[in-house]
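Re: that backbone. Tokens:
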């Protein structure tokens, strides 16, 4: 019996120029600039990262094709794209619409959307102890969500490699509690999702498989009432073991993952475990703030991105954590049978599978070995 799960890599589309970034930060700016200018904060701190492919343009179909081939060759089945929609205003969609969907080999990897429904603000870098400059606030309404569905029908859901699972089009929501609350609560949410499914049916498409990103089991019952079908987590970034030096070992973070998986899997929706490759958001921090980062005035201790750094994340330990996720799936047998990996390319958060100078393609090989 082949119990291999589908392997889903989270894709963060920050690595190309787009018009909003040029308007906000200057012509041609994208987050490669923060990666290139990152500095080590303590002895042995591995910064700046050095991508083996350099600072490439992910919206170029030729570069996107290289990503597709590399992912497929190492056992990645699905790219889950962080997707940004603010009442019709879209940002960073070029990575998906021009890059991935224009790649000659794109059918080797499926794709799906994760609506990153959070406010978009200037944390590039994040001002310490001050309010972030809000660029695009997130607000939900029935009308706007149905516009999301119409746009998906037009641009994505008809694609032959859009990921359908459990009989539906996989569509994940990053902040599901905000989504449900602003749609009017669980009953209203379920009704609106049913209307979305009717639109999809008229278009000759399957219904939605609504997936919720959660950090614990607390909201899951309400999310089920609201019409969601499964849960997962974007990442787990701390086991709480970092001391005053603000440094946490990857072994401790890895040991915490199965504890969280089991807790959320006991709630009344199927849970897809996430495997986190690492955590280091110091490239998004102001360089003059001393290490260890002090508490932020008005924001409390260890608030994003001024939190601890995870060290010691090797391909070997990452591979073992992937193996633990596969064993978890054997035990709990969720539908869909899938595991998420954070992340394909979250360079400025220290989560990446793409080749980097220190370990090359070691993390990809470890992933392929665990899920072969």
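Recovered sequence:
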């Amino acid at each position: 019996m082949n119990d291999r799960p589908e392997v889903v890599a989270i894709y963060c589309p920050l690595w190309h120029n787009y018009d909003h970034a040029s308007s906000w930060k200057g012509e041609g700016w994208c987050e490669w600039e923060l990666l290139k200018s990152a500095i080590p904060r303590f002895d042995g701190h591995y910064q700046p990262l050095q991508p083996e492919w350099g600072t490439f343009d992910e919206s170029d179909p030729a570069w996107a094709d290289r990503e597709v081939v590399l992912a497929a060759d190492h056992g990645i089945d699905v790219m889950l794209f962080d997707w940004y929609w603010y009442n019709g205003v879209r940002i960073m969609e070029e990575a998906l619409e021009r890059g991935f969907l224009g790649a000659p080999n794109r059918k080797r990897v499926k794709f799906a959307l994760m609506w990153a429904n959070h406010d978009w603000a200037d944390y590039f870098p994040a001002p310490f102890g001050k309010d972030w400059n809000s660029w695009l606030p997130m607000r939900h309404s029935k009308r706007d969500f149905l516009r999301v569905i119409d746009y998906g029908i037009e641009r994505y859901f008809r694609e032959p490699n859009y990921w359908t699972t459990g009989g539906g089009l996989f569509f994940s929501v990053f902040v599901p509690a905000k989504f449900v609350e602003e749609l009017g609560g669980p009953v209203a949410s379920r009704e609106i999702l049913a209307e979305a499914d009717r639109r999809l049916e008229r278009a000759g498409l399957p219904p939605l498989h609504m997936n919720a990103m959660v950090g614990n089991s607390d909201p899951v019952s309400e999310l089920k009432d609201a019409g969601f079908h499964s849960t997962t987590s974007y990442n787990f970034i701390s086991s709480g073991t970092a001391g005053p030096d603000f440094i946490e070992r990857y072994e401790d973070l890895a040991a915490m993952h199965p504890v969280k998986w089991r807790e959320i899997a006991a709630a009344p929706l199927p849970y897809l475990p996430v495997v986190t490759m690492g955590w280091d958001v110091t490239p998004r921090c102001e360089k003059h703030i001393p290490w260890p980062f002090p508490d932020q005035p008005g924001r409390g201790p260890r608030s994003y991105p001024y939190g601890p750094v995870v060290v010691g994340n090797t391909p070997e330990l990452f591979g073992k954590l992937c193996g633990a996720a596969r064993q978890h799936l054997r035990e709990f047998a969720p539908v869909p049978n899938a595991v998420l990996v954070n992340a394909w390319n979250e360079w400025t958060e220290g989560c990446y599978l793409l080749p980097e100078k220190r370990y090359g393609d070691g993390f990809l090989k470890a992933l392929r070995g665990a899920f072969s």
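The mean pLDDT is 97. The radius of gyration is 20 Å.
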